[in-house]
UniProtKB/TrEMBL annotation, chains A, B:
One of its GO terms (molecular function) is DNA binding. It comes from Methylobacterium bullatum. InterPro entries: HTH_HxlR, WH-like_DNA-bd_sf, WH_DNA-bd_sf. PANTHER family: TRANSCRIPTIONAL REGULATOR, MARR FAMILY (PTHR33204), TRANSCRIPTIONAL REGULATORY PROTEIN (PTHR33204:SF39). Residues 20-119 form the HTH hxlR-type domain. The lineage of its organism: Bacteria, Pseudomonadati, Pseudomonadota, Alphaproteobacteria, Hyphomicrobiales. It comes from the Bacteria. Transmembrane segments: none annotated. This is HTH-type transcriptional regulator YybR. Keywords: DNA-binding, Transcription, Transcription regulation. Gene3D superfamilies: Winged helix-like DNA-binding domain superfamily/Winged helix DNA-binding domain. It holds the Pfam family HxlR.
DNA sequence: CGGAATCCTATGCGATACTG
DNA sequence: CAGTATCGCATAGGATTCCG
């Protein structure tokens, strides 16, 4: 399977909302290296391929292609081709894509708020685990 | 770097709350294959190693170890050793770990609510992309 | 029981080159 | 410009075995 094509389909025991595996399912979709960056970058409106590439920075065209494909496949992003020469392709968040931003932003806020705590815990842990590495 | 040891430290331009890269940062932490499952499994209280392994199902002891280590390192999970023979080790969510569940649950709810939509979009996309595969 | 160490494969993903 | 195709390395992560 190509990167960006995550399987959401699950034969696992999913019963109540917020169940572990459903969460893992979205996470597998959005938790890859680039999807969120793309989704967030599309917040301000439609963007063209190379525009996205430039703004995001550090993403290869290969991964941008795969990521956009995956998002498009899941209905989070729409792709509009204007067959001029050279061709012009615009990517835009769908309604579903925009709705995803809400919980993602929440996670982002949590991250932002707790980053110091996490880093502190990490430093403490690493100090205790490798006292010889002084 | 071992699995489960994600780098949260970032030299990237992080400015406003909910910024792309901060989100990516948490996602890199909890977005791996198992972390969320472990965190969610610990909701009901402390669990022992093999208990977690059994409940989660499908996880190798290697990955459970790495995942727990990573979560412990970030202060999301606490590890309590009872040096009996055989030894007993209990894992429990910390306050930070429990606070993480809130945004994660939100994401889970979104997933649960939109799974049908996503699957429909996916089916439609796959049908259009490979019309020859009939 | 809980975990560490080693092995091995599948995949992620960047770099590069080519096409319409 | 917006891809696609091929290569190649680095990592994730499962299976297995050994240890306290």
């Amino acid at each position: 399977m190509e990167p960006g094509h995550t399987e959401v389909t699950e034969a696992q025991p999913i019963h109540r909302p917020g169940d572990c595996r459903v969460v893992g399912t979205v996470l597998a979709r959005v938790g890859d290296k680039w999807s969120i960056l793309v989704v967030m970058t599309l917040t301000d409106g439609p963007r063209r391929f190379n525009e996205l590439k430039r703004i995001i920075g550090g993403i290869s065209q290969r991964m941008l292609t795969f990521t956009l494909r995956g998002l498009e496949r899941d209905g989070l992003v729409s792709r509009t081709v204007t067959p001029t020469i050279p061709p012009r392709v615009d990517y835009e968040l769908t309604e579903l894509g925009r709705s995803l931003q809400v919980p993602v932003q929440a996670l982002g806020s949590w991250a932002f708020a707790n980053l110091p705590t996490i880093q502190a815990a990490r430093t403490r842990f690493d100090a205790g685990a490798e006292p010889d590495a002084a």
